[in-house]
């Protein structure tokens, strides 16, 4: 991955999120009003694995250890999860709150996400109660979750 052999992905309609599974060489793409696509890095073997029926999604992350996708529906705030092939769809959390969920990150047994001006954490187990980690004065649009060692 040195920047050579550049490929322009012009066949996508409205790609909003792209996540890479470097180990298995898969790319997961949120087509905002369509669904989650799975394809090889050159867009071969492209297929829609999750359909967004009358819903919009602005955030998605992947858990390569457990081979699951996590996303939040913009219309009702439901946090969903599915396997890498799109099966076993689960509702992790029902927020009953539309809009302003633009960020999600998975680390270990937790999902971190932004709900307007709050950063929250919830266990991957369906029905878990979220914990507020941080409050801001502006909307949180993006997060990057990582495990830091040596501190």
Please tell me about this protein's structure:
The protein is 0% helix and 44% strand. A hairpin with a 7-residue loop joins strand 3 and strand 4 (47-51). The radius of gyration is 16 Å and the shape is globular. A four-stranded antiparallel beta sheet has the order 1-2-3-4, with no helix packed on it. It has a four-stranded antiparallel beta sheet with strand order 5-6-7-8, with no helix packed on it. The mean pLDDT is 90. It has one domain: Neuraminidase (6 Propeller). The chain has strands spanning 15-21, 26-31, 35-39, 47-51, 57-63, 68-73, 79-83, 90-93, 103-107, 110-115, 118-123, 131-135. By secondary structure, it is an all-beta fold. InterPro entries: 6-blade_b-propeller_TolB-like, Cueball_EGF_LRP_Nidogen.
User: Are there runs of 5+ residues with pLDDT below 50, and where?
Assistant: none
CATH architecture descriptor name: 6 Propeller
Number of helical segments with 4 or more residues? 0
Class derived from helix and strand content: mainly beta
- The strands making up the biggest β-sheet line up spatially as 1-2-3-4
- N-to-C span: 30 Å
Mean pLDDT: 90
CATH class: Mainly Beta
Helix content: under 10%
Outline the biggest β-sheet. Answer: 4 strands, antiparallel
Name the CATH superfamily classification: TolB, C-terminal domain
CATH topology: Neuraminidase
| Dominant shape | globular
Indicate how many domains the architecture comprises: 1
Order of helices and strands: EEEEEEEEEEEE
Number of beta strands: 12
